[in-house]
Amino acid sequence: MIERMWAVDVEGNGGTPAEIVELSIVEMKGLELTGFSRTWRVRPSSGISPIASRIHGIWDRDVADAPDIEDVSGGIWDWIEGTPIVGHNVRVELDIIGRALEDWHPPAAYDTLKLARILVPQAERYGLETLGKFLQLDRKAAETTKLAPHSALYDATLSAMILRHMLEPLPDSVRAEMLAQANIIRPEQAQLL
Known about the structure:
Layout: E1 4-12, E2 20-29, E3 32-41, H1 50-56, H2 60-63, H3 69-80, E4 85-87, H4 91-100, E5 109-111, H5 112-119, H6 128-134, H7 138-145, H8 152-167, H9 172-182, H10 187-192
Parallel strand pairs: 1-4, 4-5
Antiparallel strand pairs: 1-2, 2-3
Helix pairs in contact: 5-8, 5-9, 6-8, 7-8
């Protein structure tokens, strides 16, 4: 089992390509959430679309005095460099963070969406919020973060809780196999990055 990883979530500005507006990381050691997290709010170079603001609740005025991504990228890099990440549909985080931190290539990226489709076949839908409710983890994530869905910290925390919920009952050998299946960065791909 991996000793340390970060559950990650990004809220974007709704642009194409999306820019980071809020980024949260939640530390995990093994399957345990350590209680340590970091959140950055960032002022995107393009404004936040009204549709994106209605989803995550972050408006241009909320980030008017926030730093640019270039101003915080070193701090983000210091925390996540060389550490596996976890996320729900984690490809989104890989893409958005990868554009902001050009040389960042985590050794692994575990997708809880991919894992849920294997380990929770009885779920009707697999969106993060829907899956969190189905697994009865949504309230715990809200209590832990004091936030609502679509805040980066809530979503990263819920992703970590879902990972733990799905893998904890499994024997170590099966956990390792499930993590290998959930890793969207294959070892051969990591060498190319």
